[in-house]
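Target protein
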Amino acid sequence: MANIQTTLKIELDPRVPVPEILAVIRAVTPFHLGQEELILIGVMEAIEKRLMSLKGVEKHAEPIPEPGRKPADTGELQPDK
């Protein structure tokens, strides 16, 4: 049976990090049809966590609640009421 692997090889220009990071996100999401929102939420959560650590916020600080997010922070979205 054929073994097919999709691999992206990406070169980034560190002098312009924001557009380069955005280009990577745009390149990766087409491989995960129907999951773009979940990917972006995961990236957003990782960015928020990093920003909190840069600001010196404790690791166990309470996250700011988001509309539609379950309080247990399971990563699942609730329908807006």
The radius of gyration is 17 Å. The chain has two helices and no strands. Residues 54 and 67 are 25 Å apart (CA to CA). The chain has a mean pLDDT of 83.
